[in-house]
Amino acid sequence: NMLNHELSLKNQFFIDKFNKHKMMAYEYLRYNQKHKEYELGHRMQTYKLGSQICDFINTDFNNISMAREFVDKYNITTIAHLLGIKIYEYCSVQEYNELVDDVLSKLKDKLEEYRKAFINDITYIYNLNELEELNDLTPKQRLHILRSSKKESETQKIYDETNLKLTLNNFGDFTQHIKLKEEEAQETAKAWFKDYFNTYAFEANDIIQTFIIELYEMTEIESTAIKKCKNCGKFFVPDNRVDELYCSNIYENNKTCKEVGPFRTKQKLMQENDDLRIYRNVYQKLLLRTRRNPNNEQYENDFNEFKQKNAELKEKIEKGKMTQKEYTEWLEKQ
């Protein structure tokens, strides 16, 4: 009874700027415990604006376990349509796993390209590199610069505006899709349309396009943002204040980054201050030796090599390729 099914129904979305939510209705393959197989059904979920984008850009799609985590959370159907493939209405566990492997192997390069493009744009829009020239601009103004100046938007290079194929729809279409009872639909409609001008619905075949729209919408709301956690380095949407530094993900020993971050940052600063003191001592020692012996080329070469090597090692620390302890040990040997 295997039936091929082309994903004909588009993903449907509500953007609720008033409550900073996104509602999503889509087809998904769910596991039927009784029949021990996967079957196609409908799912409707509500997400905080930006949370899906963060999950997407925090996923390394070259890492199969991370990619599968994303699939487990949002279902393979949300990205399968990027390939235009057909989905079984019913499939065995083996067929489902083969489908996931096939989709991820074929899409990983494209998804990585999209992911890096979003990271570049988000870093600029929310000034995550803390560039002084961007401090006085709002996220909306920075987005405008990305979309209209020589500094091109990376996502716009991939998706030209004319290729954003969207259909605005009404709530009736949406509820018909998920087959809510009429009274349930009315209650949901009241909840979602309490502020008509801040809520609208659209359909899209391509979930990446919905991320673009979601990001654009977020720049319109002053009280929301995408940040990069100062502790774990993952992207997140702040819970309360846009200037939050740490995310709510579990970091270690069932404690979140919010709980351990300030202490770890303090420790890191103390270590960095100690390293800076040692660095300055070595720097001054080599500089004085060079000045006292202006004709000694070896001393001058040693000094220049120290500065260059120090810059290289600091970059390694930034990229996570070297620990602060290893750097300290190197300094103490100079």
Strand content: 15-25%
Structural class estimated from helices and strands? alpha+beta
DSSP strand count: 12
Distance between the termini: 73 Å
Largest sheet: 6 strands, antiparallel
Assembly state (oligomeric): single chain
Low-confidence stretches: 1-9, 168-182, 192-197
Cross-sheet strand order for the largest sheet: 6-4-3-2-8-7
Instruction: Based on Cα principal axes, name the global outline.
Output: elongated
Query: What is the string of SSEs from the N terminus onward?
Result: EEEEHHHEEHHHEHHEHEEEEHHH
User: What is the typical, i.e. mean, pLDDT?
Assistant: 81
Estimate percent helicity. 40-55%
Please provide a written account of the structure.
This protein has 334 residues and is of the alpha+beta class. The protein is 51% helix and 17% strand. The protein contains twelve helices and twelve strands. The protein has helices at residues 51-57, 64-74, 77-80, 93-125, 139-148, 154-158, 171-178, 182-192, 207-218, 257-292, 297-318, 324-333; strands spanning 4-6, 11-16, 21-32, 37-48, 86-88, 90-91, 167-169, 199-204, 227-228, 235-236, 250-252, 255-256. It has a six-stranded antiparallel sheet with strand order 6-4-3-2-8-7, sandwiched between helices. The chain has a two-stranded antiparallel ribbon with strand order 1-5. A two-stranded antiparallel ribbon has the order 9-10. Strand 2 (11-16) and strand 3 (21-32) form a beta hairpin. It is elongated. 23% of the residues are buried.
